[in-house]
């Protein structure tokens, strides 16, 4: 009898279970779930830390804004949205239970902030393609941010300086539609962190948009009310963008490029 020829093992796929199939160099479903749960829990915990204690200004926000963009970069658009949504509700529950009040209760749309950041940043960092053409990518973030800009200028045009950072975020998202950034641990100097800045910038203002729209439609803010907020907003968003990028680079060093693909 002829011996059966054994096929060489295929190393493209690493089989764990049928639902836990992962591409070599990629993130499995169970790993993604673990990362998502950890990020959602971390978001809720740091939501207890007021940002004004760190930036020395009268911010009403908390440190969780630094975690919001990370959902999308690591988990992608769909997972980033799901775990970002879980994070928002966890933060609402925890801040109410510990502090007794919550920005998430005062302005309920802010619960969606991390989910929206996860969705838009995820599609910006990991665009979906059909027949080689990007159909869900950075342009989605550019379109959304442009809508926010138009709404703001329609109702609060006199507060136009407040919306300028949104313009930069929208233009950044549009530029990313025509380029691709690969996250590399071996980058040197400031480039180690700059590689993440476009995505943390988009995430920061996607997250902030929920509070901005709440201020317009729930609290009736006018452009004049937004003007004094501009310096605080710039400081808190710059702080969150930089800190998010530092955290992402630390994760890149700790776990390698695999979790970013």
In short:
By secondary structure, this protein is mainly alpha-helical.
Assembly category: single chain
Low-confidence segments, given as residue ranges, are 9-25
Rg measurement, Å:
20 Å
What's the number of helices? 11
- Give helix and strand order, one letter per element, not per position: EEHHHHHEEHHHHHH
- Which descriptor suits the 3D outline? globular
In total, the number of domains comes to 1
Q: How large is the share of residues in beta strands?
A: under 5%
Percent helix, as a range, is 55-70%
Description:
It is a single chain. The protein has 261 residues and is mainly α. It has one domain. It has 11 helices and 4 strands. It has a two-stranded antiparallel sheet. α1 packs across α3, α5 packs across α6 and α6 runs antiparallel to α7. The longest helix has 31 residues. The protein is globular. About 7% of the residues have low confidence.
């Amino acid at each position: 009898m002829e011996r059966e020829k054994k096929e060489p093992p295929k190393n493209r796929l690493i089989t764990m279970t049928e639902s836990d199939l992962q591409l070599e160099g990629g993130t499995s479903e169970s790993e993604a779930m673990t990362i998502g749960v950890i990020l959602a829990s971390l978001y809720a915990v740091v939501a207890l830390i007021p940002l004004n204690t760190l930036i020395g200004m009268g911010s009403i926000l908390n440190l969780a804004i630094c975690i919001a963009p990370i959902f999308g970069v690591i988990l992608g658009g769909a997972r980033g949205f799901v775990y970002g949504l879980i994070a928002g509700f966890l933060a609402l529950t925890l801040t109410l239970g510990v502090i007794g009040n919550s920005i998430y209760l005062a302005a309920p749309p802010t619960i969606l902030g991390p989910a929206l950041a996860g969705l838009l940043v995820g599609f910006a960092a990991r665009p979906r393609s059909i027949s080689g053409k990007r159909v869900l990518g950075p342009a989605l973030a550019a379109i959304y941010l442009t809508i926010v800009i138009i709404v703001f200028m329609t109702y609060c045009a006199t507060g136009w300086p407040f919306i300028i950072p949104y313009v930069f975020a929208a233009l950044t998202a549009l530029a990313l539609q025509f380029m691709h950034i690969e996250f590399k641990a071996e980058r040197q100097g400031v480039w180690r962190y700059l590689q993440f800045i476009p995505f943390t910038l988009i995430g920061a203002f996607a997250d902030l948009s929920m509070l901005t729209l709440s201020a317009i439609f729930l609290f009736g803010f006018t452009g004049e009310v937004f003007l004094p907020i501009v310096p605080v907003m710039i400081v808190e968003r710059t702080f969150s963008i930089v800190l998010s990028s530092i955290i992402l680079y630390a994760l890149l060093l700790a776990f390698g490029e695999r979790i970013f693909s």
